[in-house]
Amino acid sequence: MEINRDIIQRYHLGLCNPNEIAIVEAWLESDQVSMTFLEGEELQLLEDAGWEQLGEHLELKQNHIVEIPNKKLKIRRFRLGWQIAASIGFLLGISAIYFVYYSSLQKNKAGQVSAKLIYREIHTKKGEKLQVSLPDGTQVWMNSESTLHFPKQFAKDQRSVSFRGEAYFRVTKNPKKPFIITSERARIQVLGTRFNLRDYANEKLSWVVVEEGKVRFSGIAATENLILTANQKGVYEPGAQSVLTSQLVYNTAKYMDWKDNKLVLDNLTLLEICPIIERWYGVKLLIVDEELGNRRYTGSFENPGIKQVVESISFALKSKCRQHNNTWTISK
Question: What is the mean pLDDT of residues 100-107?
Fold first, then answer.
């Protein structure tokens, strides 16, 4: 069935049959409806332009009627994620709303209400890596078990995203519009650069390594910040006495090789290696002996398989490994 003005109007008035309702609601949840509608003062702004009744785009409780004081306007809010706009005399087309909305924003200067941002969230699972392109052209390579939260269109004055996990950022340069990343424990501000950010909640440290350009790195709970340039690493250790330090890095590639499917383990204890292996392959790694967990290992692999990696570690540490289903055990 084709989605047209007539069926949408009947749906809005509650006149559709069950089959039509299912079709319209599937359409409302699809990517074909991809714009933000208005509320509150923004509705008044459009009413002044000559529109009498508009719906809004919000995720709210089903069939809840909200009355605007001193107005005849009523908005039916459905638990859908996408809303439609209707006129008393006729139903507004989606493109008309989009045009009037942005035209009105451009005409209003003082006291203007900015456009509501629509956000996306991307999550990578264990054993998964993903490359994401942001609205400004910035490229993000996400490592396993990472989450990126960003708007479909950035605001006028800055480009802000939130992130947790590990990712390599190649930020598009725009001196007038700084790029800001907020993670659970740190904050990074850049104008245009390449760097690797690592901030996993189950790890002790948060850090950033700059490959090119300049970043301002700080901890959420710290008052000071670091200005880092190429070949520098900033480390933040949260706690009662937060510590923020910087160091020179002679080989930045080893911190970023993961995005090219190269596994680099640089003088790490087996306890430190475990979460890396688990995220990389989506497996469980068990260490039977506590002393064994404190032994250090250095090695690098290109497009490695889990068996190759675990056997190499076990051989270097003079230990044994065995597999049972999705679990690998290392013991003396």
Answer: 46
- Which residues have a Cβ under 8 Å from the Cβ of 13 and sit 6 or more positions away? none
- Give the model confidence (pLDDT) of 77-100 as tens digits: 333 333 333 333 334 444 444 444
Residue with tokens 């005849």: 72
The pLDDT tens digits for 213-224 are 999 999 887 778
- Cα separations (Å) of 280 from 53, 144, 302, 309, 328? 52, 6, 13, 11, 14
Q: Which residue has the higher pLDDT, 157 or 1?
A: 157
Cα(242)–Cα(219) distance, integer angstroms: 8
Element (H, E) at 94: helix 94-107
* pTM, 2 dp: 0.62
Q: Which of the 8 DSSP states describes residue 202?
A: T
Structure tokens at 203: 């790890």
Domains and CATH numbers, the chain: 5-107 (no CATH), 119-254 (2.60.120.1440), 261-331 (3.55.50.30)
Distances (CA, A) of 32 to 26, 35, 93, 298: 10, 9, 13, 50
Angle at 252 between CA 212 and CA 176, to 5 degrees: 20
Residues 31, 245: Cα–Cα separation, whole Å: 45
Mean pLDDT of the chain: 76
DSSP 271-326: HHHHHHHHHHHT-EEEE--HHHHT-EEEEEEES--HHHHHHHHHHHTT-EEEEETT
Residue 29's pLDDT is what? Answer: 61
Dist CA 292 CA 106 (whole Å): 65
